Amino acid sequence: MKKDVVLFFDLFDTLVKVDRGYLEAYFDRETDRLGDIGFLSDSVSTIKRLVSLYPELNGHGFVSDIANDYEESMRKSLMEVPKKVLKMLDNLKSAGYRMCIVSDASYTDILYWDESPLSQYFEKTVFSCERGKTKPRLVQDAWVEMGFPETCFYIGDGGHDELMGAKSVGMQTIKAEWFLNRRLESIYKYTDFYAKTPEQLVYKLKNDEFKFYELKGVGDAMSYTYATCSTERHARRAQQMLISEGGVLSEVQTTDRPTRKKTDVLYINGMELEVRPLIY
């Protein structure tokens, strides 16, 4: 049983994929610029706000028609959850993991949450529209509300600085790549681990494979060298880098908790060298 381990899940683009159709581009534009759009109380108010900014939306019909399209897209995403996601959550809940949802979501986005097959799996939901704040601060609030768990993972696609928020309270971060595969520097530097499929996430959690690799050795002039790596590929690359800098590897071991805050950095001969596999 994993009762002492808490899993924090992002919702959109991690557990469900949303297709807002012609509205998608407009929501994407406003995600970072408009803090208030996610706090509006209903779909009509949200669409009125978008129309005031983008009058061309009027070409898609009356505000009420566009609002209905918006509501339907969100209903569909929450009610038609991919079977692989439900199977993943069922396996994790059966194994005893405690789970919490953390999501930047408007009231319209979560209108059908209680009816969604997802709702049965989560001990707590932390939605931005109900808290008056967004990620990354929302992630920190979720950690507090789940009782300051010492062993916990945040699982998300990396949007909205969520992984940065998770790292700020000591969570280990897993980048979910089954819907989106963002390759951005702002996400990469806060990612500890990767899961390409829901099945891989379950397997690695159950088999305790989300571990860090700690390397210790000696650099030139008998100075100590070390690195904490997030994957085996990073660890192999760190060893190559150590040797190329004239160092000697003395020890490699795995650990649940890294001894240093910075991961995938090789400290050798007074330098900090970023560790990246040759093919990323």
Tell me about this structure:
With 280 residues, the protein is α/β, with parallel strands linked by helices. It contains ten helices and eleven strands. The protein has helices spanning 24-30, 43-53, 63-79, 83-94, 128-131, 137-145, 162-168, 185-188, 198-206, 232-244; strands at 5-9, 98-103, 124-127, 151-156, 172-176, 193-195, 212-218, 224-229, 248-255, 265-268, 271-274. The protein has a six-stranded parallel sheet with strand order 3-2-1-4-5-6. A five-stranded antiparallel sheet has the order 9-7-8-10-11, covered by helices on one side. Strand 5 (172-176), helix 8 and strand 6 form a beta-alpha-beta unit. Helix 2 packs across helix 3 (63-79), helix 4 (83-94) packs parallel to helix 9 and helix 6 (137-145) crosses helix 7 (162-168). The protein is elongated and about 70 Å long. The two termini are 34 Å apart. The model has no long low-confidence stretch (mean pLDDT 85).
The backbone outline, from C-alpha atoms, is elongated
**Poorly predicted tracts of residues:** none
Per DSSP, what share of the residues sits in E-state strands of 2 or more residues?
Answer: 15-25%
Distance N to C terminus = 34 Å
Q: Write the element-wise H/E pattern from the N-terminal end onward.
A: EHHHHEEHHEHEHEHEEHEEE
Walk across the major sheet and give the strand order: 3-2-1-4-5-6
Structural class comes to: alpha/beta
What is the strand tally? 11
